[in-house]
Amino acid sequence: MGIAAGLNVGFVGLGGMGRGLVKNLLKHGVPVTVYDVDAAAMAHAESLGAGLAEGANEPAKAADVFGICVTTAEVVREIALGEDGALAQMRPGAVFLDHTTTSPDHVAQMAAVCESRGILYCEAPMTRTPLHADRGEVNVLFGGEADLLERLRPLFETYAENIFHVGPAGHAIRLKLIHNYIAFANVASWCEGFALAAKEGLDMEKVIGIISAAGGRSGMMDLYGEATLRRDFTPHMSLANALKDVRYYAHWMEQAGLPGFMAESVHQTYALASIMGLDDESCTAVIKAYEKLTGVEAHLPEDEVPDS
User: Fold this and answer.
1) How far is residue 7's CA from residue 63's CA, in Å, rounded to a whole number?
2) In 3D, which of 140, 122, 139, 16 has the Cα closest to residue 63?
3) What's residue 303's pLDDT?
4) How far is it, in rounded angstroms, from Cα 192 to Cα 292?
5) What's the mean pLDDT when you consider all of the chain?
6) Collapsing DSSP states into helix, strand and coil, what is residue 99?
7) Closest Cα to residue 10, out of 54, 62, 46?
8) What gap in Å lies between CA 80 and CA 90, rounded to an integer?
9) Partners of 108 in beta bridges
10) Euclidean distance between CA atoms 31 and 22, whole angstroms
11) Residue 208 has what DSSP assignment?
12) Which of 104, 139, 173, 287 could, after both became Cys, cross-link 127 (CB 3.0–4.6 A)?
């Protein structure tokens, strides 16, 4: 990790994923200056050895690599663009590392702006969860030139188990959106099925057990199916982020000239759950939208449900 330790990193966004990335960068001796709107997140990063910045553009000033991992493309642009934005603080040859799950439009716009300033733009969305980020086991999807990937690989290796060179610039965010759409569509489908099973009085322990032993099984169900039926809606992947990713995907489908019937159904399902005030809960809280209609809560037998 010697090469990585010689890089000066600025980083904005200490949420579920960013917190773990910064932790592992520091663990491997990489100097990092951070900013987040959450004072508690800043204090935690400082306790791990991070330097603190007073504003979102400040970590970019002396950075060889300026990383950002926030909620939406709109927030990235708010931080990066403008007369006093992060890009205006960066020197030519530095890298703008975008770990945020955004959209193809955003990636194209940011790449063009960075190029006009002599800054290298890197799209590197991630898969897996904040628990994996904390352990240094995320998957990084990289789109761009191999030379830039090799320059950044020592950094990625501090917090990634797998680093995938997806293809040219723009391909990583496209694959990430396809992945997330499939994952969140899967959650919506089994939440719908669980809600129907509960309404019809099926044994929910048998429901999840039998589905998990056959073709209906999925990675998302393995991660969150039982937790959903135990009424644990800890937002490892928040409903707000699920809605955002599916919205970007549905818009991209429209731009591509494809009929996104399923995409829009999934989008509107999460939109309904969001309207119900479930943004800050897990993506699996989408089941509550179905339960509002059925009037029946889907859960494991009472003696299987832990005390709240």
Assistant:
1) 8
2) 122
3) 52
4) 12
5) 95
6) coil
7) 62
8) 10
9) none
10) 10
11) H
12) 139
pLDDT of residue 285 exceeding 70: yes
Residue located via tokens 């932790």:
23
Q: What would the pLDDT profile of 3-30 be if each residue is shown by its tens digit?
A: 566 789 999 999 999 999 999 999 999 9
Structure tokens at 243: 């809605």
- Give all domains of the chain, ordered by start, each with its CATH number: 2-169 (3.40.50.720), 174-304 (1.10.1040.10)
**29 is written with which tokens?**
């001796």
Round to whole Å and give the CA distance between 223 and 195. Answer: 18
**Angstrom distance (rounded) from CA 71 to CA 248:** 13
pLDDT at 4: 66
Site of tokens 């009085």: 201
Percentages helix, strand, coil for the chain (3-state, rounded to 5) are: 55, 15, 30
Q: Is 124 helix (H, G, I), strand (E, B) or coil?
A: coil
109-118 CB contacts, 8 Å cutoff, 24+ apart = 109/77, 110/76, 110/77, 110/80, 111/169, 111/170, 113/80, 113/81, 113/87, 114/87, 117/87, 117/90, 117/92, 118/92, 118/93
Token reading at 28: 């491997």
Query: pTM value?
Result: 0.92
SS3 per residue for 35-74: ECCCHHHHHHHHHCCCEECCCCCHHHCCCCEEEECCCCHH
